[in-house]
Amino acid sequence: MQNKGLIKLFAILFGLVSVYQLSFTFFANKVEDSAKEYAKNNVKDNNGRALAKFERRYLDSVANKEVVNLGFTEYTYNDIKNREMNLGLDLKGGINAILQVSVKDILIGLSNDSQNTTFRQALAKADEAQKDSQDNYLDLFYNNFVELAGTSVKLSDPTIFGTKALRDKIDFNKTNEQVKSTLQEEINTSINTAFEVLRSRIDKFGVVQPSIQRIGTSGRIQVELPGAKDIDRVEKLLQSTAELQFWEVHTNADIQNFFFAANAKVAELLKDDSATEQAKDSAKKPGDSIDDLLGESADSTNVENQKNLFTYLFPNIAQGPQQVTSLVAQARVSDTARVNSLLANKEVRALLPNNLRYTKFLWEYKAQPSADGTTEIIGLYAIKSNRKDQPAIDGDVIADAKQDYDQLSKPIVSMTMNAVGTKKWSKLTGENIGKHVAIVLDNYVYTAPIINGQLGSNSSISGGSMTVNEAQDIATILKAGKLPAPARIIQAEVVGPSLGKESINASMWSFGLAIVLVLVWMYLYYGKAGLYADVALLVNILFIFGILASFNSVLTLPGIAGIILTIGMSVDANVIIFERIKEALGGGKSLREAVDEGFSIKGALSAIIDANITTLLTGIILYSFGTGPIKGFALTLMIGIATSLFTAVFITRLFIDGAVEKGTALPFNTNLSKNWFKNINIEFLKKRKLAYIISGFFIAVGLVSMITLGLKQGVDFKGGRSYLVRFDQPMKANEVASNLKAVLGNNAPEVKTYGSDNQLKITTAFKIDEDGKEVDNEVQTALYNGLKQYLGDTSYEDFKPGFEKAGNGIMSYMKVEPTIADDIKQAAIWAVILALAVVFLYILLRFRRMSYSIGAVVAVFHDVLVVLGVFSLLYKVMPFDMEIGQSFIAAILTVVGYSLNDTVVIFDRIREYTGNSKTFTASLVDKALSSTLGRTINTSLTTLLVMLAIFFFGGDSIKGFMFALIVGVLVGTYSSLFVATPIMFDATKKEDKE
């Protein structure tokens, strides 16, 4: 081998750089372990929220202090934190969300809230079509508009987009197609603005290494925040439009007569509902009823058990001037939707006198526990609106905002207004001295103070229970700017830190065990040469982790699986080389000649390169189509292919050449393995008809199962919500499913034991088609209520995902709306098809015969169908998840890569044996297959040892993924010998005959 010195220098330098980069992770973990210890010493009850608070306090205190001194340079905690290896959600906890910027709201805004009938009908039809379509919203709207409008109205009509605001871009002479083009530009601008606003907010959130990226031109934005623990806070930050408004308000004295009249009207409207709810009412606790709250009957005509407005709404009655307040009423949080519906009823609204005609009711931003702590109470305000529903001042007048403290040291948000805002604010406060003015953010009232005097450019937002974090987030939102349209989370994956910690512990155990098994096996099989391969393998692992750390790549649980799969491939390369050397030695060549032949293109190198390129192609496709953890798997797989090729070919060669030069004996076997796979001559092709029958039988059974039993689709393919909930005691899945049916809709949720018997995976489609930020919380609250009897004294706050959990609670959570679920499924199908097409073309170019491509692709189809059939047959009986989702597609593509790897190595040997022969005979093919059998079984066995280690010790979340890989490796090994080669042989004979 030439340039040995250069290769040694490169390997040493690369190794030192890798160690240097990984050292930052080591030092950062030491500081964080100290922070955890500090938190535990200060929190006695293991409360997750309190632990996170003290951890953050410790880390903030050392953020800019020197924690590492290398002699020639020093590093603070912030320095090393920014250089450490990034862990994904499944290892660290956090949230991965895809937000959809509402193109519909952008269109409505551009039309100045047009009420044109055709325009509104086209929007409604686009909403419906989007559920089952891959087209973007603008195309759906445009197609429906053109169909509905015909020639009667154009998009450039003054009642639609021919507005004053767009007069420079759209005039009446513009065609619909031209207007559509302009609208697309405006939408792209709005989405870019939304992206920048979200990025600005996230940068100020305080999470290390956040990720935010646009997904094509779909209006979707992906945000990943590893390590985020306060999930509620993150979701508010991401979805808040930051629409700040200043309104005048009505007091409780102004509104109470309307409430009394409305109460009587609602009683009349609800008369038919009373009988059905009588039993529920009788179970109410003291303090819940309106009579308990007011101390007297609010309505003398109220009949026992008769429902009315005051059943759900508790008005603040002003019996004197001292009791006049801007808070007009209160209600239980669970009743807010019912109150909204009742107050919006036409017959109820008709009771408002003329001076209250345009009143709108808004809730305050934060609920408070009731006096007995059994529920949460939230306040209601009556806003002085107008015909156009325009506030006195809009929030775009804010020039600056920051978190501050008032005179009582309570957190507030200080705001500075621009010149226009100052003028309006001065006028508004001057006209309302002694009255209340409400400050409203995203339709929630944060404060409604009495104005004591005329104010200038400065003002503040305060709330009696506002926390420092809430004040900081409001200031961040106002400073970053408002979103041009609402953004809602259409896909979310949340992993709690407790589950992340368990995953990384399980991963490290399985990873260590897998490494030990491979190292031992290589030594037992190849002796001293195996030890050289072991050293190369350890260097390979160091290089992989060093590259990940150097480029701030994210390591995920599937990523670790990708690294372990790479270990198998690295071993495969050495096995191919060693087997070729053994063949050359058996043929009478000297050790030097045998080594040169083994490492040559004519020897093992050709097969190694072909096998690695086919796997690399599947990795590239997986990286292009995957998201989140799947990208992590593909990335580590691609990095591993490059490093394993270098270490297996060059590092191993350095050791072997050194041994040869010293005259060391290298038999490339041991006393245990020296007679294995010798003098094998199996007639594989004679058994091909039997193999076709066996394969046909298994595929047919699988297809029948898929048609009758189907496949268990994950929420990322069918839409829905999935919760992993841990309990303090063993649980019965059927019993829990029955109890949840009452709170999660008519269809019982799917409940299955997940790993240990105190963990359940609960999947439901309840309210998945409904929009709105409050829907997620509503479903989560319903889940909590349905499980409450099993949760002991666990509060709802402790039950929610996020923060470390000492007992009961949601450990992880996934939500996927049906619209994006359909897109994910389509992308996955295209990924598999594209992978097969690319590999087909590569093999065609490499082997120059169609028969080789046909054999390889038929074998891959065979493997995929068998794996699908196994999953269809077993998903109801296996004690772990066998869902078909993005992780499964990653497994399938990995199976494709592995199967092709195996097949290409065999095809390469067949081409070598038949290359100089005029006739393509069965005996030559059988001889080629027999000569590679040792390598095939050795590689498969090594890879299976690795995968079994992960399957049994790698944690529950990866069992289904690894099971697919295990089945795929077994089937792939079989198909390379008994499907791919026979199909290739028959196709070649047919080609030659024709």
Mean pLDDT: 79
CATH domain topology of the largest domain:
Multidrug efflux transporter AcrB transmembrane fold
- In the CATH hierarchy, the architecture of the largest domain is Up-down Bundle
Which CATH class of the largest domain applies here? Mainly Alpha
Evaluate the radius of gyration.
Answer: 34 Å
* Count of helical regions: 33
Strand pairing plus helix content: what structural class? alpha+beta
| Biggest pleated sheet | 9 strands, antiparallel
Could you state the CATH homologous superfamily of the largest domain? Multidrug efflux transporter AcrB transmembrane domain
Shape: elongated
Number of domains: 5
N-C termini distance: 46 Å
Task: Please provide a brief summary of the model.
By secondary structure, this protein is of the alpha+beta class. It is 56% helix and 13% strand.
